[in-house]
């Protein structure tokens, strides 16, 4: 797959190269090229592992994904709901199910449905192998299902917001990028704990999860503090293992200046 995707098709090679150049200006061309090749190998592994997620046993997945699960068990004992924020670090799909296996909470992942209904059903089956629920971003009342349960809501929070007018613009790997305010607002409203979930690729098919508690009650934090802390956390993730993030994603395609210009009201005609 690597040969076909990288050497033959050249899938989004220009996007990846541009992203790496801006994210790591201090590195040489040779260093960035090496990161790019390692990334494409991990990118291909991610898709094969997603297919394997359909059939992999709980025992095998537990062997391949290790983590400091005691943190979420302690928060459950403390009667806390959790908003868990992670990024597009490989393999987030496996980690999603591993959290379901290792948490006493009801786990629910927020996701964007795919355009192909058959593919959407297949992926959702894989994602809920451990008993997790899925909440569509298009379902206005999706969170109501969680009422009355002690739960974890998993949010991949490094995506581009669909509504830029409500986004928080922050420096991210040397360029400004828009971030969802929703995760912070939801956690604040619920007075829930906020946990950042880091993923490190140990070797092919093996991952280590490092969960870090930001706060036991998001409502005690200043506005914007959760998102800013999350961005700092994600930058650390990217610097520690740069090949393990989804560089094909056009994360910086939006411009704050263009967005602000669009948002300005038209000038009144001169008298």
How would you summarize what this structure contains?
The protein has 271 residues and is of the alpha/beta class. The protein has helices spanning 2-8, 13-23, 29-52, 58-64, 70-77, 92-102, 117-127, 182-190, 225-240, 256-263; strands at residues 65-67, 82-86, 106-111, 133-136, 151-156, 168-172, 175-179, 193-203, 206-215.
Helices and strands, with pairings:
Layout: H1 2-8, H2 13-23, H3 29-52, H4 58-64, E1 65-67, H5 70-77, E2 82-86, H6 92-102, E3 106-111, H7 117-127, E4 133-136, E5 151-156, E6 168-172, E7 175-179, H8 182-190, E8 193-203, E9 206-215, H9 225-240, H10 256-263
Parallel strand pairs: 1-9, 2-5, 2-8, 3-4, 3-5
Antiparallel strand pairs: 6-7, 8-9
Helix pairs in contact: 2-3
Enumerate the strands of the largest sheet in spatial order, edge to edge or round the barrel: 1-9-8-2-5-3-4
Number of domains: 1
Put simply, the count of helices is 10
Described by strand count, sense and barrel closure, the largest sheet is: 7 strands, mixed
Distance between the termini: 65 Å
Low-confidence stretches: none
Radius of gyration: 19 Å
Number of strands: 9
Structural class: alpha/beta
* Beta-strand share of residues: 15-25%
The succession of helices and strands, N to C, reads: HHHHEHEHEHEEEEHEEHH
Rounded average pLDDT: 93
Percentage of residues assigned to helices: 40-55%
Instruction: Estimate the global geometry from the Cα principal axes.
Output: globular
């Amino acid at each position: 797959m690597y040969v076909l995707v990288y050497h033959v098709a050249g899938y989004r090679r220009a996007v990846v190269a541009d992203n790496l150049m801006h994210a790591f200006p201090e590195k040489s061309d040779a260093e960035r090229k090496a990161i790019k090749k390692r990334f494409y190998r991990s990118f291909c592994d991610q898709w094969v592992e997603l297919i394997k997620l359909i059939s992999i046993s709980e025992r095998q997945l537990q062997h391949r994904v290790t983590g400091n699960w005691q943190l979420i068990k302690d928060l459950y004992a403390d009667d806390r709901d959790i908003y868990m924020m992670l990024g597009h670090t490989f393999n987030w799909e496996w980690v999603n199910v591993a959290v379901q296996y290792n948490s006493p909470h009801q786990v629910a992942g927020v996701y964007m449905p795919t355009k192909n209904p058959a593919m959407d059903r297949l992926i959702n089956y894989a994602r809920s192998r451990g008993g997790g629920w899925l909440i569509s971003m298009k379902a206005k009342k999706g969170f109501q299902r969680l009422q009355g349960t002690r739960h974890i809501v998993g949010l991949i929070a490094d995506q581009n917001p669909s509504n830029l007018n409500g986004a928080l613009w922050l420096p991210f790997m040397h360029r400004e990028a828009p971030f969802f305010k929703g995760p912070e607002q939801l956690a604040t409203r619920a007075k829930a704990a906020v946990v950042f979930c880091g993923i490190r690729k140990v070797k092919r098919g093996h991952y280590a999860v490092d969960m870090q508690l930001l706060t036991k009650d998001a409502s005690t934090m200043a506005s914007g503090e959760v998102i800013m802390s999350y961005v700092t956390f994600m930058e650390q993730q990217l610097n520690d293992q740069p090949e393990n993030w989804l560089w094909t994603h056009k994360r910086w395609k939006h411009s704050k200046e263009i967005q602000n210009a669009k948002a300005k009201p038209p000038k009144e005609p001169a008298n």
